[in-house]
């Protein structure tokens, strides 16, 4: 059931526009904000989440002890776009990123 909720959360997150200013001030988001995510396009949203896959893998493998900047940016973006993602744990969202 939780996987279904996370899948819905990811789908909703990609359907809703995200403002690039939400990534300002992070090392991973600063480059993205200036190079395409500023348009608020869905493809920019996908890019941030897809780029977080390696960080998500490390996070899941370490049972949440290793956190990367790209994963942090993706988690923030997913939660800004979806109430279901806000309710999910970081580990659940990281697993959902890996399942994409």
Automatic annotation (TrEMBL):
Composition skew (Low complexity), residue ranges: 25-44
Keyword Phosphoprotein among record annotations: no
UniProt keyword annotation of Signal present: yes
Pfam families assigned: DUF2388
UniProt KW keywords: Signal
Ranges that cross the membrane: none
Signal peptide: 1-20
Segments for region (Disordered): 25-46
Protein name: DUF2388 domain-containing protein
